[in-house]
């Protein structure tokens, strides 16, 4: 089974890119973030024509997450991260896909830091850690994937000295990610490529993609039952070079049945 995650940075504006990538790679599951579209503006007809069923949680102008499935129908578990009934951001959706539980997330950016946005990022992160811990403790096969807005180590960022005060790289953010990993989750990319420089995001400015001045902020975390089923993983970096593309590239893993 091939599972992918892709921050599309506006699903309607980037729809030709998304459809081209889906046709080229045909993942069994595609988790999308940053739809930037209200619920009723999700391009369901085009997604269906591409051969995918969809669950989505939209939000006008911002955020938004979706889970697309090919040759199967996902059963929604929740579209709200537990812990704060007043949080109206569309940042999480969770579904059952065959025997897998798949959580698709778009963790807050948090800049400028320090400040209210950074406080929200850390509080959202704590809620996610609590929920992830419950999922891990269930013993079920679980995949938690999406845009985490975290560079876990210096290896995951071009010129880390320039990012020390950024919300994606501050010690509190990295500590929260490590707290998540300490529950037992497997970072799929780092497990297969422990020493490789791998990025998933390149800014639109200063020719970041051309210089490979990137960040690794899109991650796959696997529960214990899936660790030994991981057979491949990668980044479709070339998609970042397409015309009118997202500033993220799709990331994918393959699990043996």
What does this structure look like?
The strands form 2 sheets. A 6-stranded mixed β-sheet has the order 3-4-2-1-12-11. Strands 5-6-7-8-10-9 form a 6-stranded mixed β-sheet. The chain has 257 residues and is α+β, with helices and mostly antiparallel strands. Helix 3 runs parallel beside helix 4. It has a single domain, classed as Endonuclease/exonuclease/phosphatase (Deoxyribonuclease I, Chain A, 4-Layer Sandwich). The protein contains 7 helices and 12 strands. The mean pLDDT is 98.
Descriptive labels:
257 residues; alpha+beta; Deoxyribonuclease I, Chain A; six-stranded mixed β-sheet; 7 helices; 12 strands; 25% helix; 25% strand; globular
Write the layout of secondary structure elements.
Blueprint: E1 2-7, H1 15-25, E2 29-33, H2 44-49, E3 52-57, E4 65-70, E5 75-78, E6 92-97, E7 100-106, H3 116-137, E8 142-147, H4 171-181, E9 186-187, H5 188-192, H6 208-211, E10 218-222, H7 224-227, E11 230-235, E12 251-255
Parallel strand pairs: 1-2, 7-8
Antiparallel strand pairs: 1-12, 2-4, 3-4, 5-6, 6-7, 8-10, 9-10, 11-12
């Amino acid at each position: 089974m091939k599972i992918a995650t892709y921050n599309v940075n506006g699903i309607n504006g980037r729809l030709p890119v998304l459809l081209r990538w889906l046709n080229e790679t045909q993942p069994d599951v595609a988790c999308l973030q940053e739809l930037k579209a209200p619920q009723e503006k999700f391009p369901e007809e085009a997604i269906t024509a591409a051969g995918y069923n969809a669950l989505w949680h939209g939000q006008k102008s911002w955020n938004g997450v979706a889970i697309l499935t090919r040759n199967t129908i996902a059963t929604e578990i929740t579209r709200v991260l537990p812990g704060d009934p007043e949080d109206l951001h569309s940042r999480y959706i969770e579904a059952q896909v065959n025997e897998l539980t798949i959580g698709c997330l778009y963790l807050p950016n948090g800049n400028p830091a320090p400040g209210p946005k950074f406080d929200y990022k850390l509080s959202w992160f704590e809620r996610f850690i609590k929920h992830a811990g419950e999922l891990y403790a269930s013993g079920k096969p679980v995949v938690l994937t999406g845009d985490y807005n975290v560079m876990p180590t210096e290896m995951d960022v071009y010129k880390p000295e320039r990012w020390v005060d950024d919300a994606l790289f501050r010690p509190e953010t990295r500590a929260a990610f490590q707290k998540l990993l300490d529950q037992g989750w497997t970072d799929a990319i780092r497990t297969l490529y422990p020493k490789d420089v791998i990025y998933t995001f390149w800014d639109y400015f200063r020719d970041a993609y051309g210089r490979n001045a990137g960040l690794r902020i899109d991650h796959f975390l696997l529960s214990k039952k899936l660790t030994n089923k991981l057979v491949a993983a990668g980044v479709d970096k070339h998609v970042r070079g397409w015309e009118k593309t997202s500033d993220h590239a799709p990331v994918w893993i393959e699990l043996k049945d």
